[in-house]
Structures are given as structure tokens and as C-alpha cells.
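Lecture notes, part 5. Sequence design as translation. It can be helpful to think of inverse folding as translation between two languages: the language of shapes and the language of residues. The source text, in C-alpha cells, appears below.
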């Protein structure tokens, strides 16, 4: 299957993408991974992306699209892939359609993870990260430490990242609504959109997504 995963920040796209890709035996292709791989390997696209990033500028669509096209052309993606974080806007979606048509393939589904805005803010703004080890993550509601402000694993101080503040989260949601959300309508006209609730436990959402992709909605 060839799938695009869409949803607001805090919807759990990265987590669901990993599980769905494993269940469907297709590669999980995320924008972040594309950038890291191309930059670390020193590809021409990676060098171009790094120059923009180092200057504090957004990476142009054509660079991102070029990376995605290269990745989708690799052998492990021959029978399908799951795109996470790409396309990010309608122009990228249109470019993806052109690239896929050139290879005589098409998308099978666009999986839209739906989460109420207040829940997104609650999920992200409630995160607390350990200063000693950022892989130790807690939440003021869903995964509280035994002692407030102290990491259960190593005793490090727990803090809220600046990117996780409520004001920042709401600004990220505004960007999502204006730039990324329109691709849902774009793909809906093609009959590709499958919308599911991303509320609940991780395995429940995965099962819901798998059923929806199989047509058991």
C-alpha cells in the first residue's frame, strides 16, 4: 500500500507510522529522516537542504520533493510506503501526484488522524523532558513521575521545552490549519481520505487505522 499520513501536531503520527509500517511491511518515510539521511550522506540534495537550514530558512519544496522521490525509488518501497510529514502543503501534494504518475503508480489512501484541538494542546503542553536524558519523557496527566519535577529513571530535572508551551503549540496548530490541512480536501476530491479518531491507547488507534485501511470502517 502507498499511504500518506496526515494529522495535527500531537496526533501521534510518528508512533502510528512506525506501527502501521511494520504491520503492512512497508517503509516508513518521514521528512525528518529524509533530511538527516541526505545530510549525513552528503548528497547534493542534502547539501542544499543544509545550506538553507544553516541560514535559518525553510527548505524549498523542490528539495524536499527530490529527497522523497529518491527514497520512494529505492527497492524496499517498490510495493508501497508510508509518508509521514510529506506532503506538507497542496503544492507538494500536486508534485507527489506528478512523480507517482510518472512511475505509473498511485496512492491507495490518505489516513487522517483526527484529534480535538484542546486535546492536542493538553498532550503537547503537558510533556516534561529530563534535562539529563531527553529520551526520558513524562506527562503531567498521562505519565506522571513519582516525584513532581524529578525523572524516575535518573533523578534529572524535568522541564517543559519552549516548543511545548501552549502559545507555541497553538501557533503550530495555526500553521497546520493554513498550510497542511488543505491537502485533506485536495485528496478527498480523489476519494482517498480515510479519517479516524486518534484518541485512546496507541494499540487501539493502530487497530482502528488498520481496519479503516482494509475498508472495515
Amino acid at each position: 500500500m502507498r499511504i500518506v499520513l496526515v494529522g495535527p501536531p500531537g496526533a501521534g503520527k510518528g508512533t502510528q507510522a512506525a506501527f502501521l509500517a511494520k504491520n503492512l511491511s512497508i517503509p516508513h518515510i518521514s521528512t525528518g529522516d529524509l533530511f538527516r539521511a541526505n545530510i549525513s550522506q552528503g548528497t547534493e540534495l542534502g547539501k542544499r537542504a543544509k545550506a538553507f537550514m544553516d541560514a535559518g530558512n525553510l527548505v524549498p519544496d523542490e528539495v524536499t520533493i527530490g529527497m522523497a522521490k529518491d527514497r520512494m525509488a529505492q527497492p524496499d518501497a517498490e510495493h508501497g510506503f508510508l509518508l509521514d510529514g510529506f506532503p506538507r502543503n497542496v503544492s507538494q501534494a500536486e508534485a507527489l501526484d506528478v512523480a507517482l504518475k510518472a512511475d505509473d503508480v498511485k496512492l491507495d489512501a490518505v489516513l487522517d488522524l483526527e484529534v480535538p484541538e484542546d486535546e492536542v494542546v493538553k498532550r503537547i503542553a503537558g510533556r516534561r523532558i529530563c534535562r539529563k536524558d531527553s529520551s526520558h519523557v513524562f506527562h503531567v496527566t498521562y505519565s506522571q513521575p513519582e516525584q513532581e519535577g524529578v525523572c524516575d529513571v535518573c533523578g534529572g530535572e524535568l522541564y517543559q521545552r519552549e516548543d511545548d508551551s501552549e502559545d507555541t503549540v497553538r501557533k503550530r496548530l495555526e500553521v497546520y490549519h493554513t498550510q497542511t490541512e488543505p491537502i485533506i480536501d485536495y485528496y478527498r476530491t480523489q476519494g482517498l481520505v480515510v479519517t479516524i479518531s486518534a484518541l485512546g491507547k496507541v494499540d487501539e488507534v493502530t487497530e482502528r487505522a488498520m481496519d479503516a485501511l482494509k475498508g472495515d470502517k
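The translated text above is only one of many valid answers, since several sequences can fold into similar shapes. Residues 2-27+74-213 form a domain with the Rossmann fold fold (CATH 3.40.50.300).
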